[in-house]
Every structure is written in C-alpha cells, then in structure tokens.
Amino acid sequence: MNYAHIARYMTLPDLKRNRDVLFWSLHALGWSGYGFSQYLGAVLYGKPIEYTQVILQATVWGFIVSAPLRYVCRWLWSRPVGVMLPSAAAIAFITALAWRVGVNWAYQQYDSSWQMNYWTDLLTGAIHATYLIGCWIGLYFGVHYYESMQMQREAALRSSALAQEAQLKMLRYQLNPHFLFNTLNAISTLILDNRNATANSAVTGLSEFLRYTLDQDPMKKVTVAQELEALNLYLNIEKMRFGSRLQIEFSIEDDAMDVLMPSLLLQPLIENAVKYAISPREEGGRIRIGGHLTGGMLQLEVSDDGPGMHDPTRLTNGRGVGIRNTRERLHVLYAERSTVSVTNTEPGLRVALSFPAEHSQKA
Predict the structure, then answer these.
(1) In angstroms, what CA-CA distances link 209 with 169, 173, 214, 238, 294?
(2) What gap in Å lies between CA 306 and CA 315, rounded to an integer?
(3) What does the angle CA 153 – CA 159 – CA 160 come to, to the nearest 5 degrees?
(4) Phi-psi bin for 153: left (phi > 0), alpha (psi -120 to 50), beta?
(5) H or E element: which one contains 41?
(6) Distances in Å between the alpha carbon of 320 and those of 168, 247, 324, 326, 357?
(7) Which residues, 6 or more positions from 99, have their beta carbon under 8 angstroms from its beta carbon?
(8) What angle do CA 306, 311, 314 make, to 5 degrees?
(9) Segments of the chain assigned E as strands
(10) Does residue 296 come out as left (phi exceeding 0), alpha (psi in the -120 to 50 range) or beta?
C-alpha cells in the first residue's frame, strides 16, 4: 500500500483558501434562500412591488451584519460548552437586533403601510429574528464540527499509514541479515572445499540479489512474474551450493503472473525449505512453488519433501521466524482478508498463502 494513495497533504494556503470559498458560498446561499422565500411569501400575500425593496434591503443587510459571526463563532468553538451556548444565544440576539434596525428602516422607507409605534416593536422583532441568526450559528458549528471530524480522520489515516509503512519496512529489512548470514556461510563452505570458481559465482549472484533488494522499494508491490525473477537470483546461489541435490519445480498458472504481491514474500519460505528440507539430507530434496487464482484471491504455496514440522500450528522451530514474518506482512497489508496456513504433507511441509488479487495496471 502506497502512503501517497491513502492521504495527500494540503498546504496551509490551500486549506485556508478552500475554507474561505466554502464559507462565502454557504453564507451567500443561505441569505439568497432567505430572500427568495420572502419574495415568494410577498407574491402569495399580494404585497405591493415596493415590498421587494424591503426584502432586498433585509437580505443584503443580513448578509453584511452576520458575516463577522464567523470570527465570533471560531472564538466560541474553543470555549467550554457552559460558556459557548449562553454566549452564542446572547450574540445571536445582539446580531438579530442590529439586523432588525436595518429591516425596520427599510420598512419605513419603502412600505408606507408599516409604522413602528413603540420601541418595543424593535425588541419584539429582534426576538423573533433571533431564531434565524441562531440557525446561522448552529449551521456554522455543524459545518465546523464536520470539518474537524474529517481532519481528525485524515490525521488518523496519515498516522496509520506511516505506522504501516514503518512496520512493513521493518519486516522486509528484518529478513536481509538472516539471508546474508546463511549465504555467507555457504560461500565460506565452498571456499573451504576449494570450490573457488563456484564460490566466486555465488558471490556474483549474491551481489546481484542484494542489489535487487536494495533497489526494490519495500512498499512497492511487484507482479508474480517479477517475484519469480527475483527468486531465481536467490535460487541460483543455492543451486551453486547444493548442485543436483536441490530440485525446484514451478507450477504457476499464466493468469496469476500479472497479479501484484509484496516483493520478496516467498523468499524466506524458500530459504526455510532449503535450510530444513534440503541441507540436512544427503540426497537433498525438491521444493515446489505454486500459484493460481481462485475467486478473486491469489493462492501461493511453497512445499517441500523434507521432514516437516513437529507441530506446524505452533511454529516453534527455526522455520517460525520466516513464516511469522510472512504472516505479519500480509496482515499489515490485507488484514483479515489474508491467510497463511502451514501443514505437514507427509513427507514435507506446505506453506499456503492467500490474499486478494490485484492486477497490474499494465495488464
């Protein structure tokens, strides 16, 4: 899984610009909706044409007088609920009172049938208008809460992705010292046996394989075909060491070749088979690498004809390190959608992997 595909960082100017656009769009849309609803009411009640001036004045003045609430609400958001709610109610009333002054002035200018007889009319109108401003504040808090939840979710995804990336790299690089130790021991044995030409070829093969492991991004998935090419670099080293004692059988279906998989996933399993099924036996043995697609899942297996394991469910011997590593890598990438099963086949051991099939974009 590539972190760049999970979450993309936004620069602060981009984030601020997007929030400004969102605010002014919703702000304009809300007051436009108010003006349109008032106009429809005026038409239904047969108000004179001059009344549209009152609606226009009330809409524009409402747009202006409520705009600063954005900064007031932003300040209130960080306050305790016991302070935020009463303060929001008081600010809603004050804003409604200021808005109502402009509306009343518009009535006096454009509606001759309307007349304010007492100052209490202004207060009453402000109380009635408080619900409108209260809705504005409530909507702002709602959008702000949703935005905060989204930002927390994105931060959690970024944190999870970083942790996942670190874990995958740790698991991949954990194998390199183990493999290098075994291979250098094998080369040392070849030198002690005066098989210098073979040892030299093994060193060259080791160099090619290590170059591949260093160049290959641990986070990048490869196709099954590419995985087999990398495995051949490793197997060529082991074939120099064991000669005809090591027999390899590939049984990969063609439709599985372009499926993506974690790089070098099978190498520790094959290394286990070489170490525990081939090396201890004078006659050597056979390792089989299989793969096929079933129901949208890629099924891979590495099996040998060695002595197997006393209890394959507990992974108590040396094979357990590679198998546990493989299981953890698949779990990090695919969670419960992946399985790793280990079974004795009498003779031998079979390690089967299953995880969702993802096809290469080049396919």
Answers:
(1) 18, 14, 9, 12, 31
(2) 16
(3) 90
(4) alpha
(5) helix 12-44
(6) 18, 23, 6, 10, 26
(7) 58, 61, 62, 65, 66, 126, 129, 133
(8) 120
(9) 221-223, 246-252, 259-262, 285-294, 297-304, 339-344, 349-356, 358-359
(10) left
Residues contacting residue 152 through CB under 8 Å, at least 6 positions apart:
none
Percentage above 90 pLDDT, the chain:
17
Q: Which residues contact 184 (CB under 8 A, 6 or more apart)?
A: none
- What angle in degrees, to the nearest 10, is found between the helix axes of 81-110 and 69-77? 170
At the fourth CATH level, the homologous superfamily of domain 195-359 is: Histidine kinase-like ATPase, C-terminal domain (3.30.565.10)
Q: How far apart are CA 207 and CA 195, in angstroms?
A: 18
Residue 336 corresponds to which tokens in the numbers above? 């419960």
The CA distance from 247 to 262, in Å, is 25
Q: Which SS3 state, helix, strand or coil, does residue 106 take?
A: helix
Residues 168, 329 contacting (CB under 8 angstroms): yes
Helix, strand, coil percentages, rounded to 5, for the chain: 65, 15, 20
> pTM above 0.70?
no
- Taking the C-alpha atoms of residue 333 and residue 310, their distance in angstroms, rounded to an integer, is 30
Q: In a 3-state reduction of DSSP, which class is residue 284? A: coil
The 10s digit of each residue's pLDDT in 142-166 is: 888 887 787 777 766 664 565 555 5
**Segments making up each domain of the chain, as ranges:** 3-158, 195-359
Give residue-wise pLDDT tens across range 83-101: 888 898 899 888 888 888 8
CA distances from 323 to 1, 75, 130, 216, 317 (A): 21, 55, 67, 21, 11
User: Is 252:280 a contact under the CB 8 Å cutoff?
Assistant: no
